[in-house]
Amino acid sequence: MYRTNWGIGHGLKDILEAHKGPFTGQGHKGLYEILTTSRHAQLSLNLAMLGSTTIVVAHHMYSMPPYPYLATDYGTQLSLFTHHMWIGGFLIVGAAAHAAIFMVRDYDPTTRYNDLLDRVLRHRDAIISHLNWVCIFLGFHSFGLYIHNDTMSALGRPQDMFSDTAIQLQPIFAQWVQN
């Protein structure tokens, strides 16, 4: 994504405009102009990336402590995790706010017809309803685990509960990555 003064490499505009898929219409055409002319779009994108990175840092500092003595002090470790999660959350809220400001002040749907952002906006109802179904699915299934454990506890069958000593829910993909 870097082009030297002698024309070696790739420019970001060329990469974005060359990316066209079967379902994306004109693809990312015009996205470079949006990012170079709208400060709110730039700020929104950068805040979202920094917020996501901060949340990943919080998780990694909690699950794989970078300093050997950090793992022995649980209060400090939990405080660092909470601190970075709050910072990441505030950065992502700021990204959403600046994306909304961009959509109200800087986005012109008449000049951006059939590009990727226009197609996402035209399909926003379907996208939101699918995200709603995903949230409902996850909520019911995690609530189902609580109901299952309460029922097994009430019936006096602790060996059938989801726990570390009975039926274990192992993070198999995380273990695969770490080993």
Automatic annotation (TrEMBL):
Pfam families: PsaA_PsaB
TM helices/strands, residue ranges: 43-63, 83-105, 126-147
Keyword terms: Membrane, Transmembrane, Transmembrane helix
PANTHER family: OUTER MEMBRANE PROTEIN, OMPA-RELATED, PHOTOSYSTEM I P700 CHLOROPHYLL A APOPROTEIN A1-RELATED
Record's protein name: Photosystem I P700 chlorophyll a apoprotein A1
GO biological process: photosynthesis
Cellular component annotations (GO), alphabetically ordered: chloroplast thylakoid membrane
Keyword Secreted included in the entry's annotation: no
Tree of life domain: Eukaryota
